[in-house]
Amino acid sequence: MRPPHSGLDDRGLLHAHVQGDPDAFAELVRRHRDRLWAVALRTIGNADDAADALQDALLSAYRSAASYRGEAAVTTWMHRIVVNACLDRVRRRQARPTVPLPEDDRAPAAPNDPIASRETAIDVQAALAELPDEQRIALVLVDVQGHPVADVAEMLGVAVGTVKSRCARGRARLALRLGHLRNPDGGQHVEPTEGGAR
């Protein structure tokens, strides 16, 4: 027997939730929770704050589902709520910035040198944490999560060109901050890559 919501797409689930289906929203969250969690964690950098922001966002989405107008994908709408909740939490904690450690305990991508791989992950997380909020969020959504720029513009409520420029500035800052990863011998000179920073 098929699960009761298996035939519904995201819009159908949200509509069913608005109509009073007690399980539809939970199914919607189940489908997208991993990506929403990844956005929250990478945006905030602290697991406890990310969990609180995600909880706030999902509660807000649950309560405001009837306001969804269908102009964007349901996932775009949900990501926008999560990003806004993260920004609210980041603004509240700006007086006490932190440099988080990676949360993922799985084997590192480079099994031949796990220590170097873990150190690289820490460096990248720290560099992301130093970016202005707008640049970090744009980079997380576009480069880490792989969302199209147009969708990210919709999530953030800004123009496509604004997302592109935030990403470009963020990538340039990361390239400067992480230049030592391209030149592991410890020298100061970093060769530019083809086409500059992504």
UniProtKB/TrEMBL annotation:
Positions of transmembrane segments: none
GO BP, sorted A to Z: DNA-templated transcription initiation
SUPFAM superfamilies referenced in this protein's UniProt entry, alphabetically: Sigma2 domain of RNA polymerase sigma factors, Sigma3 and sigma4 domains of RNA polymerase sigma factors
Pfam family, one: Sigma70_r2
UniProt keyword list: DNA-binding, Sigma factor, Transcription, Transcription regulation
Ranges where the RNA polymerase sigma-70 region domain occurs: 28-95
Gene Ontology molecular function, alphabetical: DNA binding; sigma factor activity
Stretch list, region Disordered: 96-115
Annotated ranges, domain RNA polymerase sigma factor 70 region 4 type: 124-174
Keyword Transcription regulation: yes
Keyword Ligase: no
CDD domains in the record: Sigma70_r4
Alphabetical list of NCBIfam families matching this protein: PRK09643.1 (NF007225), sigma70-ECF (TIGR02937)
Similarity field: Belongs to the sigma-70 factor family. ECF subfamily.
Protein's UniProt name: RNA polymerase sigma factor SigM
UniProt source species: Cryptosporangium phraense
Gene that produces this protein: sigM
